[in-house]
Amino acid sequence: MRIVIDVAPLSHPRTGVGNYIRGSLLGLAQAGARDVVAFAPASRAGRRTIEESLDGVDAERRLPVLPAAHALRTAWSRLGTPPLETVVGSFDVFHFSDWMYPPQRGGVRSTMIHDLVPLHFPDWVHRRTVRMHGAKYRHAARACDVVVVNSRFTGDDVVETLGVDRDRVHVAYPGVDSTFTPEGARAEGEYLLAVGTLEPRKNLVNAIDAAQRLGIELRVVGARGWGGVEARGKGVTWLGYPSDHELPALYRGAAALVYPSRFEGFGIPVLEAMACGTPCVVSAHPSLDEAAGEAAVRADPDDVDAIAAAIERARDERDRLVPLGLEHARRFTWLENGRAHLAAWEAAR
C-alpha cells in the first residue's frame, strides 16, 4: 500500500500538530508500512525545517521547493486541479493535515482533525486560521473516506458538529516518544512547568497567576503566540523552543506540569510529563479527560485559586501521582497510532 502523507505543517517549528505528524510517521514504519511518502510543497527554509523534523523517519521525501508555497497550497486546494498523482505518481492513500487538500484521481482520501477550536471559538485563533480550517472542515466532511482524530472527544465533536458519519471517523491516539522517561538529566531549580503556545486558549495567564500566588517560578515552553498573552511578571521565565533533548530534562525537574487549557483535541504535553515522572495539574474541561485519565489533579481552568490549590495537592501527592502517571502514559505508543491509521485505511479500501 503506497501512502502519501501531507507533512506541510512540519515547515514550522514543531508544536502538537507537528509532533503528531512526526510520531505517526514513526508509528507507521513500526507497524510495517514500507511505502510511505512524506509530501509537501515548501519554501527553501520550510523544506530545511521539514527535513530536520523527518530526521530518523523511514519515508520517501517529496518536498518540492516553491516560492509562495502557502499561497500555492491554498490555490491548489481551491482550484481542484491538477490531481496529486501528476506530482507524486499513483498511490493507495492520500492523508492530508490542515494546510492543503489537493484533488486526487483515486485511492482512499483521508484527513486528520486535531480539534474544532476555530469553529467553536473563533476569537481564540487568527482570522486566517478560521478561514483556512473552516474550508478544510467543510471539504473533509464532504469528500473524505476517512477522518482520523486524536481522541474520542474530538471524534464525537466531528460527528456532531460536522455531520460526518461515525463509521468514517477513526481514533488514533498520540504516542509518547522514547526520550520522555524518568531517567536522565533534570533541569535545576524549584519550578513549575507550562507547555503551550502563548495564546488565549492555553490559558497561561491563569497558570502564571497561580504560580505567583504560591511564590514558585513558572517556566513556560512554547511560541510567543498572539492575542496579547505574554509570559511576564515576577517569577516567570519564557523558554521558547527547547531542543528535543532539553524538554525531557525540563519535565523531569519540574515540581509539576500546569496545563490549564480551556479546550484541547487531546493534550500531548500531559502524557510527556507523566512519562517523565512529573505530577500534572490539568484543566477539568472534558476535552482533557483522555490525556489525564485518573493520574492528574484536575482544576477549573477559569479559577486561579482552584489551580493554585491543585498545584499544592500535586506536590503533596507526588508519590501517589507519579506511578499512576507512568502507568497511564505507557498505554499510548506511536506503534498503536500507526496501527490505527493502517486499520482505518484498510477498512476504507
Q: What form results from the Cα inertia axes?
A: globular
Q: Would you give the CATH topology of the largest domain?
A: Rossmann fold
CATH superfamily of the largest domain: Glycogen Phosphorylase B
Number of helices: 14
Give the SSE order as H and E letters: EHEHEHHEEHHEHEEHEEHEHEHEHHH
- Can you tell me the CATH class of the largest domain? Alpha Beta
Radius of gyration: 20 Å
Terminal residue distance: 10 Å
- Spatial ordering of strands, largest sheet: 3-2-1-4-5-6-7
Measured by DSSP, the beta-strand proportion falls in 15-25%
Structural domains: how many: 2
The CATH architecture name of the largest domain reads 3-Layer(aba) Sandwich
The counted number of beta strands is: 13
* Poorly predicted tracts of residues: none
Q: Summarize the amount of helix as a percent range.
A: 40-55%
Major sheet characteristics: 7 strands, parallel
Mean pLDDT: 93
What class do helices, strands and sheet pairing give?
alpha/beta
Description:
The protein has 349 residues and is of the alpha/beta class. The chain has two domains: 2-175 and 333-348, Rossmann fold (3-Layer(aba) Sandwich), CATH 3.40.50.2000; 191-329, Glycogen Phosphorylase B (Rossmann fold). Helices cover 41% and strands 16% of the residues. It is built from 14 helices and 13 strands. It has a seven-stranded parallel sheet with strand order 3-2-1-4-5-6-7, sandwiched between helices. Strands 8-9-10 form a three-stranded parallel sheet, with helices on both faces. Strand 8, helix 8 (204-214) and strand 9 (217-221) form a beta-alpha-beta unit. Helix 10 (268-275) crosses helix 13 (318-329). The longest helix is centred in the middle third of the chain and has 17 residues, at 127-143. The radius of gyration is 20 Å and the shape is globular.
